Amino acid sequence: MAGMLRAYVHHRHRRHGFVGHCWQGRFTSPAIQCSTYLLSCGRYIERNPVEAGITAEPWQYPWSSAAAYALGQSNALLTDHTEYLALSPDAARRQRLWREFLMGDDPLEEEVRRGDWALGDASFRRRVLHQRGRPAPRSRGRPPKHAESGVGNISL
């Protein structure tokens, strides 16, 4: 079984251009700047059934919160977020605006889709970086060798 799994993983990596183990990077929990990115993240999640070709409209998917937010259907599991409520004081207009946002374009979509460690402007990212006490994110791969450091240089 172990050999079969290794063969499958190698095949999957070659075919799809993946790196690492099968679930690497699959589940992330980025810090989100509410005022700017929260609604875009909700849009991304609620549009997943549409992007996958399961439904034509997000509110048609039975396991989504889109029907509650876009059509006003009752759902005891949900609590409206202040950013959603700020769309409009009128519930019918707020639902219409959410439907239009779900079906329209979002300028932040590419950033949300990329799934970085923090979604927000530069000052928000610096603040989160400082609060978490973590080093700044690095680019993938081995750091480049610098000629002036003498590392990797052979002088004869």
Question: What is the element layout, followed by pairings?
Answer:
Layout: H1 2-16, E1 31-32, H2 34-46, H3 48-51, H4 66-71, H5 82-85, H6 91-103, H7 109-114, E2 118-119, H8 122-132
Parallel strand pairs: 1-2
Provide structural commentary.
The chain has 156 residues and is mostly helical. It has a domain at 29-132. It is 46% helix and 3% strand. It has helices at residues 2-16, 34-46, 48-51, 66-71, 82-85, 91-103, 109-114, 122-132; strands at 31-32, 118-119. It has a two-stranded parallel sheet with strand order 1-2. It is globular and about 60 Å long. The chain starts with a helix and ends in a 24-residue tail after the last helix. The model has no long low-confidence stretch (mean pLDDT 82).
